[in-house]
């Protein structure tokens, strides 16, 4: 029995071994048909993407640098101080914030102030200087707390305010130099000398000729002329003399009295004509008795009254004629009086001219006359030169002691000079106190941009900062910036706030400018899913079963980040074909 079992076990093991060898050999050996089928490419299948519903935002990405905005190189407009000695820096500009009225630097121990303005400093401001640059200084002084009228003239009030500005910063306003003081004193002494010379020559002339009677005659003639002119002016201003006024008043009174008598006579005549005369006994009779008929005697009673009226009228006409005659006489008298006074003025004028001529002729007889004339000319010239120099004499503002900047406060970003060096070119570069991102975009993308578009700044910290597109193209070209390569345009993006950006200044950042966005969620598909047919209509292929599709016509909208807005017979979750794999 044991041997039988061993035999059975060996047989089974042999069968298993043979079967294993057969399977191994069969896996290694294939027919040519099997080999060809194994090497053939798999059946193609569709690559699809789901239709989504979401908001779509289209952006232009900018790689740029975050820095302080509006870089502006600064140079001095001229000498600092009132001398022409070498301009050597005694305190260089310092990097950091620069406020209005601050001292930017020192040259030869003198300050250079920073003030706000767009007109550059270009000359020395002296007393009496006028212009827009002076008006800028006055407005800056007002912002700094100094009361000064904005007149555009460098006047006393402006000089006082400038002096206080210097004193507040520990300096003295530029006073006249030693050369200026010497020149002023020389001109003043020249005037005094000319006055003394003229007085001496006049005295010599007067002592050499007895011209006193002629001077007195001229003085009296001028006094007579003034009196004649005064009388003429008074007579011209007065229409009538007091005597004429009295005559006209009497004539007016006589005329009014004649008018009263005429009126009284006319009223009496009218009353007599309207009511006939009746005998006394008729009045006492019965009211039924017929009115008596006037007799001839009664009719003649009004003739006297009529005569009185006629006489009164004649008296009134005579009174009026008398008044007109008095008025005519007054006018003729005034005309004659004015004629006499004008004649008197002419006579006085002739007397003055005659006296002046006589005095001149008397003085011409002396050789000293020429000396007096020359001394007078010398005095006038000396006074003119002194007045001209005095107009610009006093406290001044040298051209190099003020730097006008368009915006303040600003920041000194770069200093171009050190203490001990001489001033030749730019001394520093300032920027605005706000940040900006500068970069460039392709010209095709720039066509999508508009100033004022919203943007976001994305530094490496992971935070985002809201910003605004403020300039692109030619408007974004800044001095000192590298010109972007051909096919690109510069761009400037301004953050909405500077909070949190100070530590990032000078670093590279990414900015995204929003050029379009949907207000509400819309259906979107990959751009690759949209195909434009020969008829010009856009379509997508929708998979409705495994590897089975249908064309659906759509209308496209906003495109962003490889997706496009579509409308048509689609719904969220549909699968659209984007390729074949």
Automatic annotation (TrEMBL):
Coiled coil: 309-365
Compositional bias annotation for Basic and acidic residues: 235-264
Residue ranges of the region described as Disordered: 235-301
GO cellular component, one term: cell envelope
Cellular compartments annotated: Cell envelope
Membrane-crossing segments per the record: none
Keywords of the record: Coiled coil
Gene3D superfamilies (UniProt xref): 2.40.420.20, PGBD-like superfamily/PGBD (1.10.101.10)
Highest rank taxon of the organism: Bacteria
UniProt feature, compositional bias: Low complexity: 265-300
Protein name in UniProt: Peptidoglycan-binding protein
